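Incident log, support desk, overnight shift.

02:14 A customer reports that sequence design results differ from what the structure should imply. Their input is reproduced verbatim below. On-call engineer (initials T.W.) acknowledged and began investigating.
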């Protein structure tokens, strides 16, 4: 994708299904991160295992933030989304209309 793509649902039933699926995926990610954080409590802070677990937590968090499930700016789960190829992230229509999205300087 070279230009921004907007996905807008007008049907209320489809919006409800979309919101429920996003919430389900987000809860699964949050549960996994919490279980990994619980593992961190029993491990020495400077050990190799703790750094591996912490990197897994960060990977899950970044994947969720860059997915269509969550707005990259406000972290909302229920709005229509726009994909910005330059950022490689999805952001909600509300953040885009409020001009809250930071765009990187174009490469020359």
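02:41 Re-run completed on a clean worker. Output:
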């Amino acid at each position: 994708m070279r230009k921004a793509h907007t996905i807008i649902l007008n049907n209320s039933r489809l919006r409800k299904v979309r919101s429920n699926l996003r919430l389900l995926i987000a809860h699964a990610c949050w549960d996994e991160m919490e279980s990994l954080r619980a593992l961190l409590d029993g491990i020495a802070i400077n050990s190799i295992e703790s750094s591996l677990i912490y990197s897994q937590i960060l990977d899950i968090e970044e994947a969720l933030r860059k997915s269509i499930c969550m707005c990259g700016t406000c972290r909302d789960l229920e709005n229509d989304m726009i994909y910005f190829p330059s950022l490689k992230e999805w952001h909600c229509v509300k953040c885009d209309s409020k001009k809250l999205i930071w765009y990187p300087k174009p490469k020359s």
